[in-house]
Amino acid sequence: METKDTKRVEKPFDFKANVIKALGNRQLRSNLKFAMGSMTAKRKALFSDTAAFEALRARGNAIRRRALLQLPELLEQLERKCTENGITVHWAETTDAANEIVLGILRDHGATRVVKGKSMVSEEMHLNRFLGDHGIESLETDLGEFIIQLDGETPSHIIVPAIHKNKQEIARTFHEKLPDTPYTEVVEELNAIARKTLRKKFYEGEVGLSGVNMAVAETGTLCLVENEGNGRMCTTVPPVHIAVMGIEKVVEKLSDVPPLLRLLTGSATGQLVTTYVNMITSPRKPGEKDGPREVHLILLDNGRSTILPDEKLRQTLQCIRCGTCLNHCPVYTRIGGHAYGFVYPGPIGKILTPQMEGLDRTSAIPTASTLCNACEEVCPVQIPIPDLIRRLRNESYDPDGSVCGHGVKRNLAETAVWKAWALVNRHRALNAVGTRMAGIFGPMLPRIGPLAEWTRSRNRPEFARKSLHDMAREEGISDE
User: Fold this and answer.
1) How far is CA 466 from the centre of its chain?
2) Could you state, in order of their start, the residue ranges of all structural domains in the chain?
3) DSSP run (H or E) holding 255
4) What is the H or E stretch that residue 375 is in?
5) Please, which residues bridge with residue 242 across strands?
6) Angle in degrees, CA 148, 154, 158, rounded to 5
7) pLDDT at position 480, please?
8) How far apart are CA 69 and CA 220, in angstroms?
């Protein structure tokens, strides 16, 4: 299956340069430190009962694993139930195909204005840019997304897109980008400015577009969670609603939703439940006073079906997009989301992005981890993120790997070095000579060649002048 989209990245991805730039931005690091402290504290307070949380995690893991094991059947059932309910279902293998489907629906209705709820899948599609290239206004209505859209940026976080900005930066953005807007740093006034601007757009929007947090195969129901009400406005006010969804978001039964909802909202924002939980099962029915006349569901693959067959890598698709792994990652909390260069940052991005984009483009991303296991400990559906990071690191060197772009880091010099190491450690005499040489020349090695780069951020290894065998023999102790 062809999953790459040649339009996704306009310039070469240089992760090292991105990291250096982020670490040099003191304001960014200050903003992230302030925000992360608050989010992790709320989550910890909500899940204070460790035993209860672990039991809930196990249940969430079981629900997601069960859904993925029967994903093809559930998707067919979802299509069938949605169709019975009056929802039009579309299938898209790539983001290009998904964009064309959206454009076709808009053209069928002569629409030139779209209001959007928060959707990471639409970020995968780079939908705003695509629609803009075709003369269609696409407005983000989530407050964080609205802010970064004004600044021409992409989300820095899965849940809080503008987490990298403080109120002073947001105040400047509103003052400079929204006509006749006075400068103010009062949070309530900033919210009022955004509300006033967006409220008018909701009524002008000819089509509303949203993501999908979960889709229930049993009933053909689309579940969306939010806190601002903008998602509900996007899905009910315009006459046409388009929902875009990754194929892995389907669950088997309606009874699967409450435990996942509890895990999602608690992990994402530290809430028992979000302000709005929307369950959409059909367009407006005869006699109903509101709701869209048409609902379209676009099911996007974009490489997910290539991940599914691998029993270990399949666990990546369990993700419910809560973002808590980002909040607890010592790497993400210091460099933010933009340094990762692709749609999904942080620990989940380290395992999802290489599988979707190919290791030939993203092999540096899995290396951005301390393997401290914090992400695995807090993941609400028990994804073994560190294990999958190690798997992808190995795939980078494995010429017989399964992930697209595998073996990209393999080179003759390094292969020769490891073969020599294996040879030396298989033969006692060679090992003795090698150990003695390391003691003599080892202290000089990190200062020359490629090893010099390794010691830039690590302590230089100290090599003993004498081996344990040598010292034992000097003491008259046999090493036989």
Assistant:
1) 49
2) 66-305, 412-474
3) none
4) helix 374-378
5) 209, 296
6) 100
7) 66
8) 19
Amino acid letter at 87?
I
How many of the other CB atoms lie within 10 Å of CB of 25? 15
The alpha-helical segments, DSSP class H, found in 110-256 are 120-125, 127-133, 143-150, 167-177, 187-204, 230-236
Quote the CA–CA distance of 362 and 426 in Å, as a whole number.
Answer: 35
Given a contact cutoff of 8 angstroms between Cβ atoms, the answer to whether 205 and 139 are in contact is yes
Give me the count of residues in the chain.
Answer: 480
**CATH architecture designation of domain 66-305:** 3-Layer(aba) Sandwich (3.40)
Q: For residues 469 and 20, what is the distance between their CA atoms, to the nearest angstrom?
A: 44
Task: Report the alpha-carbon distance of residue 165 to residue 157 in Å, rounded.
Answer: 11
Residue 99 makes CB contacts below 8 A (sequence gap 6+) with 125, 126, 127, 130
Q: pLDDT confidence of 3, banded at 50, 70, 90?
A: very low
pLDDT tens digits along 276-299: 999 999 999 999 988 999 999 999
Bridge partner list, 139: 115
The CA-based angle 82-317-127, given to 5 degrees, is: 65
Instruction: Calculate what percentage of the chain has a pLDDT beyond 90.
Output: 80
Give the tens place of pLDDT for each residue, 317-328.
999 999 999 999
Measured in degrees and rounded to the nearest 5, phi and psi for residue 226 equal -165, 170
